[in-house]
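just leaving the lab so this will be short. below you get a single protein, a line of residues and a line of whole numbers that encode the local backbone shape. id like you to explain what the token line says about the fold, in plain words if possible. thanks a lot i owe you, the record is right below:

…
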Amino acid sequence: MTDKKYLVTRELFWVVVGQVLIFTGGFASIKTLTNIMGPVGYGKLALGMTIAGFFNMFVYGPIGNVVIRYFSICKEREELNLYFFVLKKTHRMLFLIVLCFTALVSLLVYFLIGREWALLFLVSSLFGVVRGVELSFSSLQNATRQRKLVALHQGAEVWLRFLLAIGLLFLLGNTGYFALTGYLVGMTLITLSQRFFALKDTTILKQWYAKPPNELSERKMFNELVKYALPFTYFAVFNVIGLYSDRWILQGFLGASEVGVYSALYSLANAPILVLMAMLNQMMVPIIFEKTGSMVGDNKKEIGSKLLLCTVGVYIFFATIFILILFLFSEPLVTFLTNVQFSTYHQILWIVSLGLALFNLGQLFCLRGLCSKRPIVYFYPKLWHAISFFGFSFFGAMFYGLTGVSWGLCLSSIVYLVSVLLVNKNIGFKVAV
């Protein structure tokens, strides 16, 4: 028991270290880039990040979910050789497809819109690809509970990419695509480092280069992983709308300057929630998956539900504190962390944070279905969230500007949370009291 407590304490320490680095680096990035680029430049950078987010969610997000969920299952079944072989092959195939797609669309954007937006799309897409590969290594190291490596790489990533972005902005010019190029270079270095350290793990290295026993077993593993990942691909369509359409709606109605202001405030509001979710994802989610395994037996289901309740309780407690702080001190916080150009809309800070907190609470409750290997049950909650978010954001921006979009985020998050809870009542994974 003492050894177990020591292990958990050490893991928690490194998770906290990583999140402190991310938290401070994120604020330093917002403060520096908003002052260098201004609202318009920061708005274009934010739009570029939505393009990267599209690839990350639609293409690589599902793979990341497969990596972290199936590591314990394949280890239990002694099929890690198949697991790694199929994942590597899938990554290579997706890289070629995305590269061809990116080149084609970049050319079209160049001729139809112009050089700046073409370069923004190109660099954003490449950043999304590299970030997706890094996500797989990070998910793998989380699954093997290598907290120290994950924490240090995540912390280094935030600082490295924003420092490189600043360097390129001063050396090459104050444009969004040069800032994103700095992000791309930083992420590439971190991904290479992730791979190097991942292969130092004996469990991973032993199976990394092993070939499948036969083509039939490879196909069977591929089909099983695709079956689990496919719902996340469907969800990605809704998630892209539910997380990024607000920026493009604001771009259409109000322009890049308002996008920049909203994105900066969104980043500030999201920072504490993001850190909290990252800590829970790194610390608790792998443990929940490890304890539930393939979900055979009532005991595993009971353990999983108790761990989930504990995780949700911790999340609600800290999220409430964060929102209260942002409600009480929004103006001085925004002024200090950006500048007076951005502080005009300081009052939306707590509203955005509330919306994000409610959405992520829904995400935590989705762990019930994921533990049962049934992510598809959340198809309709994702659909209702995407539709409501787009609708509320569209009409909110039309009539009330940034404030309307912020309340749209809150209302759509409530729709999502309620939908997830209704689904959870019917999936047979009941909360043990």
Observations:
- Residues 2-424 form one domain.
- The mean pLDDT is 86.
- DSSP finds 15 helices and no strands in the chain.
- The longest helix spans residues 2-77.
